[in-house]
Amino acid sequence: xxxxxxxxxxxxxxxxxxxxxxxxxxxxxxxxxxxxxxxxxxxxxxxxxxxxxxxxxxxxxxxxxxxxxxxxxxxxxxxxxxxxxxxxxxxxxxxxxxxxxxxxxxxxxxxxxxxxxxxxxxxxxxxxxxxxxxxxxxxxxxxxxxxxxxxxxxxxxxxxxxxxxxxxxxxxxxxxxxxxxxxxxxxxxxxxxxxxxxxxxxxxxxxxxxxxxxxxxxxxxxxxxxxxxxxxxxxxxxxxxxxxxxxxxxxxxxxxxxxxxxxxxxxxxxxxxxxxxxxxxxxxxxxxxxxxxxxxxxxxxxxxxxxxxxxxxxxxxxxxxxxxxxxxxxxxxxxxxxxxxxxxxxxxxxxxxxxxxxxxxxxxxxxxxxxxxxxxxxxxxxxxxxxxxxxxxxxxxxxxxxxxxxxxxxxxxxxxxxxxxxxxxxxxxxxxxxxxxxxxxxxxxxxxxxxxxxxxxxxxxxxxxxxxxxxxxxxxxxxxxxxxxxxxxxxxxxxxxxxxxxxxxxxxxxxxxxxxxxxxxxxxxxxxxxxxxxxxxxxxxxxxxxxxxxxxxxxxxxxxxxxxxxxxxxxxxxxxxxxxxxxxxxxxxxxxxxxxxxxxxxxxxxxxxxxxxxxxxxxxxxxxxxxxxxxxxxxxxxxxxxxxxxxxxxxxxxxxxxxxxxxxxxxxxxxxxxxxxxxxxxxxxxxxxxxxxxxxxxxxxxxxxxxxxxxxxxxxxxxxxxxxxxxxxxxxxxxxxxxxxxxxxxxxxxxxxxxxxxxxxxxxxxxxxxxxxxxxxxxxxxxxxxxxxxxxxxxxxxxxxxxxxxxxxxxxxxxxxxxxxxxxxxxxxxxxxxxxxxxxxxxxxxxxxxxxxxxxxxxxxxxxxxxxxxxxxxxxxxxxxxxxxxxxxxxxxxxxxxxxxxxxxxxxxxxxxxxxxxxxxxxxxxxxxxxxxxxx
Length: 936
Known about the structure:
By secondary structure, this protein is mainly β.
């Protein structure tokens, strides 16, 4: 029913917009003369900017700016492109449609974002994983590193768009069909971010802004500021542009997490020496606690059911502070040569803390089960007594991450423009990014209180018998024992340490570095329909490195949290309001960040090398392309291919475990692989009159595995006994992409389009599961782990259709609306990650005189996100978001702007396969912002 409303809403919006196109009076502005069809989107946009936006029948030029001007510019670029492209243009210098670049991209048909941490960070195009799409800054890749808390971050080949200040962006181009001249590596699509150039910007252009934003869940506000200055001399032969932005956000995310689901029979019932369930005279299995009661079925039904492995009340806070610097210098020593040097530096602080209060019912409390309720094969309610000796009821993890992100990019281009449209350009550059956890502090304590739980598809209740706000109810997590690290004795003062683990300090630093050099040439020539040939090449040397190390923290004292003498607090009132999480588990002990750091500093700290968690991946890519542009009898487009050689060298270390009592050994590994791929492509556009364009495209494309997947290292969880690792022998994803589209341009500023697409993917990377033995540092013995590692071999098909409309309707009112349908099939029987079957965008706007306002509504249906803990098929439930922005020009130079994000205060919900098995409910809150800007 909900989705039917979404479709009706979109259908009505598109129909309304289309009616507006057809009913518009003929005296409205006409489309401006366009540039030659063989131009690139960049050239088309430049020409559009130089031309009047429209002209009425009187012949008087009317310059259209603001929302309508940016949409018309975007339409002009799309119309003149030879590939299937969508464009978002800035309304003016420093004025982009959204406060976040990813949020703006989510309005493009076929583009979606994941809002797990509130604001968009990565984008999926045509339902493909963000790691399988590329972001190019002015045509070149940018090194990328992330903050280490988002499980989709690790060493992917995409970019965290939250780092990119929208004030620096002139235009976004989303290529859904490739051209040979565009760098390879994307299956879904490629986003090219265009920044401003001083010789293309009016001399002495100034932009400055200052504002304030407030998040209602964090209950904090912060300032934001930016400035830009661009100058060039009167002759237009030398120019300088500089820009700086400062942004700070306070985020609070609270919710309930489920650590996957496991078989209840393995946890609550007695087993014989062969591992079979012990049964009574009636054939029913025998519970570990024979006095426990079962509701909703028999004991056998309980043994067949699944129960949550863990239930966690998670309270996450983060401060995101970003400072960006951009500088560009351009010179024209002659009329036909342009030299451009561009630099970018981003400093980001993403420090955060997580406070997690969780139970693991089966592993910790299976022998003290008091009651259980079974519904549809799921243990939806259960109660437990106090923890038995040697076990625990629950654990409080206090985790502090210090994360500093830096991104540096330097690019030089020398471009020559010859006669008849001939051009030659040479580029070279360097990019480096540093991120990760540096360090991450973890301190944990346990409680033995009795408790009960219950949950539905969108709620959870955990109640403890006792006071979770009393620090005396929390004790040391582990019992003292002889300590080893990777099997080697821990020696303190000449003897092996006997102590309990108190926590740990983890350093996990990612370094991503890229060198590149290349050339591009355009050679005009006449040979039948062919008008020019484009040739070029590029060499890239890339290194992605993860350095892992840390400290194990031990204590010899038998402490409670109360005896440590540190100040404590509790989760703030209302932290879990609206999340679906209830019960007294919503109110538990918190420690300040400094208190956690001090506790660990006062423990016994032993340095730990982590060679099996570290790796280096070196990647060398050499590519050359040939592209022929053609035009004849209404047809235009390009055909050609890109020949790409890739070499990967992975350096990492394996832990080889011996029998108990013998030390595991660390074995260095070096694996080298290479491959050569030819990637042909064809783009055709046919202009069937002055208002209708048909397009078609077919191309072979590749997307390389994540660097972490190539790294080969294995990370282990000594509590859940699962692990994940890489595979240096992975091959790239390969796909044949098909695109068809029809575009109708009835008048200036109006567009109605239909797009069909298909992706035929092979060598799709699947997660394979195996049992491997590793040394467990908590139990100080070898243990069997369920290890997930990526493997090639899968196939996947994606089919989809997009319909979109936009136009100026009546008296300043306008509309953008689009609907996307996509479906996929894989060898695993799952959808591709991040693919929603239905996506809806409805964006009405109003612009008249000094006032403008825009309302943005986005809906996406459920989608598969990832394979989670215990092989959980983690799905994300349907999600809706409503944003609003408005601006008023106080003077010609001064504008007041207000923004509101996530007005619906939507809940981000995950589940394992079916809705009756939830895996997370999160609330990120609403953000309100106001700013004043000056431009001249």
